[in-house]
Amino acid sequence: MKKVVTTFLATLVLGTLMLAQEDTVVYEHGPFQMTFFFPPLSTNGANNANIVNDVSLNLFLGVSGGVEAFEAGLFMNIDNYYMNGAQLAGFGNVVGTHVNGAQLAGFFNVAGANSRGFQGAGFVNVTNTHLHGAQGAGFVNVAGGKTTGAQVAGFVNVTGDTLNGFQGAGFVNTAGKSNNGIQAAGFGNVVSHGHANFQGAGFFNVADEIEGAQAAGFVNVAGKVKGVQLAAFLNICDSIEGVPLALISIVKQNGYRKLSFNVSEVQYANLSYKMGVKNLYNIYSFGKPFGPASQWMFGGGLGGEIDLTEKMVLNIEGTVQQELWIANPATPYFMYIDRLNLYNTLKVLFGWSVDDKVDLHVGPTFNVSVAHSNPDFGVLEWNQIPPYSFYNHTNTNYEQTNVQIWVGIQGSISF
Q: In this structure, are 131 and 246 located in the same domain?
């Protein structure tokens, strides 16, 4: 992380002007100075770089020992020792060691050691060690050590050590460690060690531990999770005390994984795979319904398992399956799914453990089919999914959408 900070300083071409001093340095003190254009054209003369002023005004570029109250410059302010109070510059502020107060600049701010207060810049803020307060930049914020407070940037926030607060960026937030930190980014968040309370990103989140929630547009990755993982596509974690919700959720240590073979009044063969955690798992299903040999079904859903006794469980599941035609001469494609024909099921299944690896399930199902049944709408005639129904209604729209409701039964064996 020191290399990151060094790179920023080198890019700003200010390394030669930052003369970081030890706390034992003896410096002079003055109430006021003005630099008319650039050093040594100053009221303090050539010795201005060693004098700490209460108030410092720089018409273009000023170099002082430090500031006790206020400093302003049209272009740049540079203080070798420290700055207490407020520092304003049209382009940039540089302080060799500690900043206590506010640095405001049109382009960049640099604190050579700790910063307590606020850094606000149009492009970049750099605190070489610990930040206690806030950084706000249009592009990048960097704290080489700990951040206790907030970093808000249009592009990237970097905390080299521990984040204890908030990072918000348009692109990426990264922290070496987190202690109850919160990260929100348009693209991604990364915490290498420690625990974060919340990570929210448009694409990905990575954390060692989560005690709260991870939410991402694509993927979440974590070690230990206490709370919720929510992603549009993929969740990965070592272990979780809570629930993961995504298209695919992989829990390595205490995850739920079952392969089931199912039969019902609609399908004489159905293979489903369940993965996630016991309280909430994903279901991926592929089956063969009664009917033409080329008609199949695929789909998925969610479920949860409740322990009733040591050997008996209750599984509540909801699935949605769509018809799939494979190698039917009447279809324009080898695998045809263009026609809407949905088989929606709510299942209440009672399970018994035969041994440690085999479970048997049976229970009632509540079913709803929704299909476009107009024979002119597609290349296939209508094929009914339900064998019977107590509700059967066809709408008078162009697709002639048919809805049927019935109660059925399902049996399965799980491994």
A: yes
